[in-house]
Amino acid sequence: MIENIADSSVGPDLDRELRQLLVLCFPDTPQFREHRHYLEPPRQRWFIRENGQLVGHVCLHRKTIGSTQGDLQIGGIAEVCIRPTHRGRGLVHQMLHKLHEWDKNSDFQMLFGKERIYHSSGYQTVHNPLRYFDTIKQEWITQTLEGTMIRPAIKSNWPAGPIDLRGPIF
Ligand SMILES: CC(C)(COP(=O)(O)OP(=O)(O)OC[C@H]1O[C@@H](n2cnc3c(N)ncnc32)[C@H](O)[C@@H]1OP(=O)(O)O)[C@@H](O)C(=O)NCCC(=O)NCCS
To answer: Structural domains in the chain?
Structure first.
């Protein structure tokens, strides 16, 4: 069963389970050893439990970004992960379906990932230059990031030109 919870409501037990899954699935991301988010806490989390064990997770950031067509509301998707023993069963697709149903007020959803994983969930690659805050260099950077993908939600015409994330990547 897929459950969802506001990040602010996550208690200590679920926090521990989430961090264990995130460390397992993202061994090169040291942040997850310290806390359950990458750079910023998300708004909402979805997870799948099987036989009591956490096997899948995805989270959503609510963001207002700048574009050549004015501000856009986006659902920024992050920390997509499936326990290695449970991969290849379409669990990502199922969790994203629930997330899309919940995230009805966003103009688009956006994520950084591989097209082969997300194409079947409605995502397409875009090549806009992105302005974002690099938390390591502590400076604003504008560049095209490989793997930037969007899914049309309320709006369908993704703008050309630069996109201002107004904060770090997610
Ligand atoms: C990426 C990850 C979440 C995929 O999990 P999964 O359970 O295999 O995903 P699903 O079964 O839901 O498959 C989703 C799609 O990705 C495709 N896919 C998944 N792994 C693939 C691979 N190694 N090679 C090619 N396609 C792959 C599936 O075929 C499916 O496509 P389809 O719907 O068009 O048939 C999982 O491998 C993982 O947790 N990896 C470590 C963390 C990570 O890299 N997360 C992604 C961050 S962007």
So the answer is: 2-164 (3.40.630.30)
